[in-house]
Amino acid sequence: MLGLLLERQGLYKAAEKVYQRASDLLQETGGKDEKNLAYANHARTLCMCDRHEEAVKKYQSISPLIEYSDILGLAVALYKMEDFSASYQAYEQALQLASNEADKSQILSAMGMVAYKSGNTEQAKTLLFKSCQLSSPSVDGLFALCSLGLVLGDVTLATAAITELQKWQDKEEGETIAVDLGFLSAMIYALQGHNELACRQVAKLLKRHSHRGELWNLSAELTLQLSPNQAQKSVSYSKTAMETFTSCKDIPLVNAVCETAAGSPDCLKSAQKSVHLFPDNLNNWATLVASASSKCTWDSHGGIPSKSNTAAKIARFIYQQATKTGQSKLSNWSAGQVVLSLVQCERLDEAQRFCEKVESDEDIDSELKSFLQLLQVEILYLNGLYREGDVTDIQSVRNAVIDKATTSQGWQFLAEVYKNAGLLAAAEVCYRQALQRESSNQAVILLRLAHLALTTYKVSEEKEKWLNLAQEAITEALKLKPGNPVALLLQGLLHSQNSNVKHAKRSFQQALVASHQPCDVFMRSVARLQLAKILAAKKDQDSIKVLLQEATEECDPNLKQLQAMAPKD
Question: Looking at CB atoms within 10 Å, which of 141, 238, 424, 480 has the fewest?
Fold first, then answer.
């Protein structure tokens, strides 16, 4: 009885010790039924304590093993041991003992799960179909069938499963399945490239379940992942989720991530709060590093260089813990953050030593190795081996890029080195090399190339060549990212150089409309100033007043220049 009470409270380790004691006491004096019951209880808690091999042995000591619940317990323990063949056989045995359609549907769903883990996708699909065709289909089976459809890219299968699940919304289970239903419904549209419609699926459920913080949290996650340009909207969703926060560990984490992505000044406080609430979650610590690095970057742009290596210390802690627990993705990310944070606070020798230490590991991930090699090139540059105008030292950076950092990022870094040295044609070649090596984020490289061309136009004798290059790069960038505010701003500057006032005005206006993130403040400032110059030339004082009011509200860095253009009352 004590063991059952402890188990009910979730105190599995304590319950396991009590059940062990009960088993020992019944070993000599207990009857067969009492022993079997004690063994079953002990095996169940061993499984809950992740001692699966011991749980299997304890289940197998039950004689005879004929009880429905005991066979299911053995099947689960074998599954967690990854003995999928034996687990499948145990589920088959339990299926023969199932007394109703609901239980049979649940077991068939579990058998489908085991078949999928065994690599037999077709058998998994067949079993899940059988589960869903019974008179009392398992909700878990329908979710599994939908998920399988998404994994296989079978939209028809996933849609059919989700249609059946939607029939449960008005039933007793409707409240329980709302979050999973919203997620899978959104993923069906996201799989087809309809990101906006994907976000709307969760919004529909929010009308029915507005009190569910997990749904608001899901909406924030999806908005950030599928529509990163609407990071500010994801912040508002995550804040609503925080207001209804109960025990979901993801809600504070997602709130901190959203605020960091949106450039919110409160991102560091939110990250600290998520760590204080759940210090055992390494993802919370990772978000703290990201927000601290973001703040340091922002401060350095404002002329306040950071000398604190707090972010590097935390990142090193994450790297050590993630490596121990086998979280390879987090381990790789944190290793890069250690180096970046050390470079940010100008601890270059320490950063170089850490790179060499990580690279010495024989099992290092290839992507991490490439990234560290790129960072070492940057460290080489920052250590003063390159001196402005010294072509020999530029050559050493170039050789390092060719030998080590052969990625797109390496060539972009070399382009910046050439650009700073005034070797603009060489910088153009490097950006073109970067474009050839980049497949997913070419728009950023194109915008950098366009900026280089516009800058070079002012000092070059080949003005037509550089203007054409700028036009070509901006056009391609807008094809990849329609409505990109940076591309629109550069397009406006290009039109200004060509004295095309009408098109320049339109581009600057579009840039102001498209840039609505807090981190876009400097870009909006440039666009607003350029637009004000055009309006001043046309003596459109009313429009300048509107721009001045917006600039005052946003604390525009160019506010004094705008005030000088405004009409005197």
Answer: 480
Amino acid found at 302: G
Instruction: Please tell me the distance from the alpha carbon of residue 339 to that of residue 48, in angstroms, as a whole number.
Output: 40
Q: Is 249 helix (H, G, I), strand (E, B) or coil?
A: coil
- What count of other Cβ atoms lies within 10 Å of the Cβ of residue 407? 18
Q: How many CB atoms lie within 10 A of CB 169?
A: 15
Peptide bond into 518 cis (omega under 30): no
323-358 pLDDT, tens per residue?
A: 888 888 899 899 989 988 888 887 888 888 888 888
User: Using CA atoms, how far apart are residues 358 and 365, in angstroms rounded to an integer?
Assistant: 10
Residue 152 in tokens: 């296989």
**Measured distance CA(71)–CA(78) in Å, rounded:** 11
A 10 A CB-CB count for 90 gives 27
pLDDT at 448: 92
CB 126 within 8 A of CB 111: no
Lowest mean pLDDT among 32-36, 43-47, 313-317: 32-36
pLDDT in tens, 470-493: 999 999 999 988 888 899 999 998
What one-character-per-residue DSSP string does 56-108 give?
A: HHHHHTSSS---HHHHHHHHHHHHHTT-HHHHHHHHHHHHHH--SHHHHHHHH
Please, are residues 190 and 217 in contact by the beta-carbon 8 Å criterion? no
Tell me the CA distances in angstroms from 165 to 107, 169, 256, one per residue in order: 18, 7, 32
Q: What is the pLDDT of residues 520-550, one digit of tens each?
A: 778 888 888 888 888 888 888 888 888 888 8
Give the separation between CA 191 and CA 158, rounded to whole angstroms.
11
CB neighbour burial string for 188-217, b if at least 16 within 10 angstroms, e if fewer:
bbbeeeebeebbebbeebbeebeebbbbbb
* Cα dihedral across residues 514, 516, 522, 528: positive or negative: positive
Query: For 387-445, what is each residue's pLDDT tens digit?
Result: 444 444 677 778 777 776 667 888 888 888 888 878 888 899 999 988 888 877 888 99
pLDDT value at position 317? Answer: 93
The whole-number pLDDT of residue 257 equals 92
Inter-residue contact 282 to 271 (CB < 8 Å): no
Residues in the chain: 569
Say which residue the tokens 């991930």 belong to: 365
Q: State the burial class of residue 272 (Cβ atoms within 10 Å of its Cβ: 0-12, 13-18, 19+).
A: middle
Could you tell me which residues come within 8 angstroms of residue 45 by beta carbon, excluding any fewer than 6 positions away? 3, 7, 12, 15, 16, 19
User: Which residue in 464, 509, 518 sits closest to 488, CA to CA?
Assistant: 509
For residue 39, the surrounding DSSP H or E stretch is helix 32-48
pLDDT at residue number 446: 93
- What average pLDDT does this structure show over 25-30? 68
Token code pair at residue 519: 């981190």
